[in-house]
Each structure stands twice: as structure tokens, then as C-alpha cells.
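Thread: quick sanity check before group meeting

JM: Hey all, I'm pulling together slides for Thursday and realized we never actually wrote out the predicted structure for the chain we discussed last week. Dropping the sequence here so it's in one place. If anyone has concerns about the input, flag it before I start.
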Amino acid sequence: MAALEDQRAELGDEVVESALAPLRQRLAELTTSQRSRRRQVTVLFADVSGYTALVEKLDPEWVGGLVDRLWDEVGRIIVAHGGRVLQHLGDGVMALWGGEHSAEDDAERAVRAGLAMLEAIQAFESDRVRAGSLRLRVGINTGLVHVGHVGVTEEFRATGDTVNVAARLEGKAEPGTVLVSRTTYNQVRGVFDVSHVGDLELKGRSEAVPAYRIDELRP
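JM (edit): ok, ran it. Output follows.
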């Protein structure tokens, strides 16, 4: 493209523009594909059960320190299991496996991270929080999403129905449990003991979604 621009005086505007048009279109396609693309991923949502009731009468600065400690611990677990923290949502977190580099065991890594997070929050304590008073709920789903860098800040995001189902599963999970979708279950059922908890009615879904509770890692 730069070479054609340099020859504009010799070739004329009409010739240069006709040659540049398909090159500009291809460049735009490549730029778009780099910024946003479809990928098979595993999405994890988690939040702290009872958080609002626990902190509603506490000093905001102390609460901020508590949240920082909680998400530092959770973030370390996610990264250690090959995931990426995409967003902190107050008392919740969203993480992704396979957003940029996929692996065959992404779903397994996400479930392992979920179980490790349950244990870490169960054992968490501070000067005003006794061990066992905080419990985590986790929802995990595997499927296609659009991932890429968006906006002027180039923030990395994942969007699509797969993300929505993971968030809804987290909302349906009992405190201290990990709920997964059928697509995630199909990839981890030989690694974990799993219980089918039924077909759940999720907000925004026309059909019920089969859900499974992760009971424990198999020996």
C-alpha cells in the first residue's frame, strides 16, 4: 500500500485507488479478526454468598481491604490453573480459559480452580471474619464466545450466550458448590464425581439447561 502511494504521481489517482481498494478491505478484515474472534472457551463466574449481609454495617475502608484480600487469593488460584481473570464484579469474579490459547483440558482446569476457590474461601479468616463464615458459589460453562480487545482502552472481553449461562448457573449454585453445564460436564465427567441436579430454568433462556454439581476430584 505504501509503495502504491509513492507511485501515485506516476500512475494517477484512478489506478492507485483501484489497486488500493481491495488491499484496504483485506487490512480491515485482518484488523477485525485480531480484535474480535470466535473461540471455544470455558467461562467461570463466582461470588461470595452472604457478603452483603456481612459487610453492610462495617467500615467501607475495612471492607475494601477484605475484598482485596479475597480476590488476590482467588486470582492467584485462577492464574495457577491456567485461567485469566476478566472482571471483578464487587463480590464476584469472572474468569476465562481458552480466550487466547486453548488447551484440551481447559474445562478440567476451570473446575479444579473452582474447587480450590471453594476451599480457600471456606478457610479465609480475618480480625472480623471467622473461618467458615464466607462461602463461594461457582458456575462454569463451556462453549463458543466472541473474544477480543474492545473500546479505546483495548479491554479484553468475552461475550455470548456461553457467558450468560455461566453467570446464571452461578446464581443457581448453592453456597459452597460448583455447578457446571452439560458441555462442561461432557469434558470432565471422567475426572470428577458429578451429580445431575436437574434441568434448571435460567433467566433469558427459552429451554431448561441441564446442570451438574461437582462433588469431588476422583482418586
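AS: nice. The chain has eight helices and eight strands. The mean pLDDT is 83.
JM: adding both to the slides.
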